[in-house]
Amino acid sequence: DPNFWNIEEANLQQRFDRLLFPLLNSGEIKHISLFGFGPIPMLIKLGTLLNDITSVDVRQKRRNPDTWNFDDDIETIYNFSSASIIKSQVALKIELSDNIADERITRILSDDVSIYSLNIDHPNNDFVKSRKQIIDFGNKMKKAFREIKRIHGQDANLNIFPAMPISLALQLGRVWMPKADLSMKIFDQNFALGGFVEALEIKHC
């Protein structure tokens, strides 16, 4: 349904405003343990609503072993690769669960796009096993946001193409600053529609 994302974003915002925000604002809820499931764009949106001011313990469902538990202090090195040429559009590939070919992006945005990448050496969908991996990703994501804004300016729109675990999608949203970072368009992989499609737009203040 072409209206799916608009409807679900509105539902999420309404439920957050009605059920959660008053409790956070009044101080009744001081901490959230967040066990996320859902489409990646919606998880990013939820992260922006909670932001990094709220005390949130973001959890990750693991496949092997089948658990929500964390191991201690497992580290992952996150790499940020800059675009080779500065063009009028800007895209960020988040290649953590899988690699994303540039052609999948230029097919949508044309060749007039600078493509950046945040990646790990061996992408897979079950690598998040510790809180440290989530925190370190958030810190790397903050630096990526700042660097892309420095190069392209405050008025650029950042097109996000994610292949990432659910916990890191939530963390991406939490570290995005609405008054400091670029507006984002979040794309979602849809095999029925032949590739990435625009899902949500998250605008800065």
Structure description:
With 205 residues, the protein is α/β, with parallel strands linked by helices. Helix content is 36%, strand content 23%. It contains 5 helices and 8 strands. The chain has helices spanning 4-26, 40-50, 102-109, 131-152, 166-175, and strands spanning 32-35, 56-59, 79-81, 89-95, 113-119, 157-163, 183-190, 195-202. The strands form 2 sheets. A 6-stranded mixed sheet has the order 3-5-4-6-7-8. A two-stranded parallel ribbon has the order 1-2.
Largest sheet: 6 strands, mixed
Average pLDDT, all residues: 95
> So what's the overall shape?
globular
Question: Which stretches are poorly predicted, pLDDT < 50 over at least 5 residues?
Answer: none
Which H/E pattern describes the elements? HEHEEEHEHEHEE
Query: Number of DSSP strands?
Result: 8
Share in β-strands: 15-25%
